[in-house]
Amino acid sequence: MSVRELYRQCARLLTVDNRDFEARQLVEFVLGLDQTAFLLQADRAVDPQSEQQCFQLVRRRNAGEPLYYILGETEFYGLRFYVTPQTLIPRPETELLVQLALERLQGRSQAPVLDLCAGTGCVGITLAKTMPDVAVTCVELYEGAFSVLQRNIALHQVENVTAVRADALTYPLQGVDLLVCNPPYIARWEASGLQPELRYEPEQALFAPEDGLAFYKRIAANARQVSGLQVLFEIGWQQGGAVTRILKQHGFSQICVHRDLSGNDRVVSGIRR
Fold first, then answer.
1. Tens digits of per-residue pLDDT, 73-93?
2. What is the CATH number of the domain that holds 162?
3. CA neighbours closer than 13 Å in the CB half-sphere of residue 234
4. 27 with 10: CB under 8 angstroms?
């Protein structure tokens, strides 16, 4: 069959919501085509091996495996990032964290930035690539995720990013001007209500003790002696009030809850005075 026919067949077989988009993604991935080549080569014959590979990927997707784990990469803030089942898949909602960080870095190109719980490094690397004079340290504890972080640093050739394998809960914050963090923030009791695809993502990147608030509490406590530190935390949509109270308890001021494009609370910011 042709490229076009293979795409249509995959779209018919897929049982996901956005099946036309995902079918095209899978076909392009297997055949090594970009968007332009997909259109220009629509009538090209596809070899039987590639056809079967596409149908195999369709079966994996229908079984619930996330598309971007199948593809091995995703897009974030217009940039490409490697992903594996050892890393959380970057979400569009997290781009708000980057936007707010860039606003705070305007006119402060030498400000040291710390990205805790870095995962793929999508936040820290995007900041470093957008502002080449800013020095960014990305901290990730888990070996599998740290390996992906290093691959993404190499992919984007960002010499102003340093990867450190360490625990975000105890990492020293002295000398940092801006801290960005997308920590685990889902409470264990919420697990049964989550989307089925999330069972493929690493638990250590999703769940946190103390009703999902443990990382905010520990990191805020570690910042008590760091005057002038600005923080940006991604949060769950119901955690704005709780994280605001945590920051107040640890001496932060100018605390603000920022909403994403869907109108949900997404980021809490504050300054340690």
1. 999 999 999 999 999 999 999
2. 3.40.50.150
3. 26
4. yes
